[in-house]
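Weekly modeling sync, notes
Attendees: S.R. (lead), two postdocs, one rotation student

Agenda item 3: backlog of single-chain predictions. S.R. asked that every request posted to the team notebook include the full sequence so nobody has to chase files. The rotation student volunteered to paste the first one in as an example of the format we agreed on. Action items at the bottom.

Example entry:
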Amino acid sequence: MPNNSPESLQHWHVYMLRCSDNSLYTGVTLNVGKRLIEHNTCNKKGAKYTRCRRPVVLAYIDSHLSKSQAYQREYQLKQLAKSHKEALVMQNSVTQGLHLAQALATQKHTTFTSNLEGEE
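Predicted structure, as returned to the notebook:
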């Protein structure tokens, strides 16, 4: 039987944030926009690492179909030396805007659709 839960219909995103001290923070989320806001404004939901390194900006994003794939990729990224992470950020900076636009468009569409469904 197929898994039709909301999680199974969404992409998981591995992201790297550039912190104000030029360090890189790596995480996993379903909603990149919401998570970025939490890192920059919320002391309870934002990561402890980023709280004292604000503001943070999105430096890298990579989408995966499953949570386990995303966490495997996060682990791989965290094992890289900073120089390799920086090269990856530079290499993907051209396509990052496209990925981010697609991720945000999908999230906005999902939010808009669910808002419409709630009005019925």
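Discussion: group reviewed the output briefly. The CA atoms of residues 14 and 62 lie 5 Å apart.
Action items: rotation student to repeat for the remaining queue; S.R. to check formatting next week.
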